[in-house]
Amino acid sequence: MGEIQNRTEMILDKLKEKGHRITPQRLVILRTLVESQNHPSVEDIFAKVRVHFPTTSLATVYKTISVIKELGEVLELEFSGHNRYDGHKPYPHPHLLCVKCKKIVDPELSSLAPLTQELVSDTGYRILSHRLDFYGICPKCQN
Amino acid sequence: MGEIQNRTEMILDKLKEKGHRITPQRLVILRTLVESQNHPSVEDIFAKVRVHFPTTSLATVYKTISVIKELGEVLELEFSGHNRYDGHKPYPHPHLLCVKCKKIVDPELSSLAPLTQELVSDTGYRILSHRLDFYGICPKCQN
DNA sequence: CTGTTTGCAAATTTTTTGCAACCTA
DNA sequence: TAGGTTGCAAAAAATTTGCAAACAG
After folding, report:
1. Which of A97, A124, B91, B126 is the Cys-Cys partner for B139 at CB 3.0 to 4.6 Å?
2. Predicted confidence (pLDDT) at residue B75 exceeds the cutoff of 90
């Protein structure tokens, strides 16, 4: 149990190892990233930190995300004017986005392995990572 | 033959139909989008138009892309600070990017249909589009 | 002619950077 | 105490918008 706590501790250790310091703001930002299931935006994270530390600046949020990104512990989903972050599963995986309510979920796709296999066989590429985003309308928003 | 010309004509007709006007700048922007195999950025397109019309502004490029996007004749690939455009195949399709030589190819993936099917069955979403980018190293760059 | 488009500049939006004061280790 | 971090403001970078002059139909 405490998988999220363990992951948080692990990242904190990594931070210390690299000579980074653990500030109260960073702790909240890190926890928000690790606990969030819904791929928060910078503004989302900013809002959450502000609850506990009202003087926190956006710059600090950006800087902290940047540090955690260097550790490979958060996945950045690039969108033109609104990046989202996944600190829960910081490795490439498929996303399913509802274009109406903007929710993002992680579907389980057993067919992904065969697809990647086909890609490798057909092209001879060595695959390093991927970005698989599906856009649609979730069951709730279909009404 | 003349597939690209045909597509260009078709889009021009669509533009006229909707009450848009065909200006020389728009013609060059449109041709660049339709002919490009390399998913050009706004700056790429801007540079090409400038060759023929040195007074063209970036705003015009953005506005024209926006209009063509409304017609559904260009695909926008969102990156945080550098969108790319595909006016050659303006519908969602997988991309395979070599991280070394930056080449982009369009792989044929017969496994994509079953994967989408699995997604629909599992989640109940109505899928509207997708973005599938694979990052890897092409055969040539593996040496 | 009429109304759309252009091109310039200013405004927006997201993210980055510089730096003095501050705080963690 | 030393040096990384914060928070403010200014700077970048990409895109959008307002508007008068230009131009397509």
Report:
1. A124
2. yes
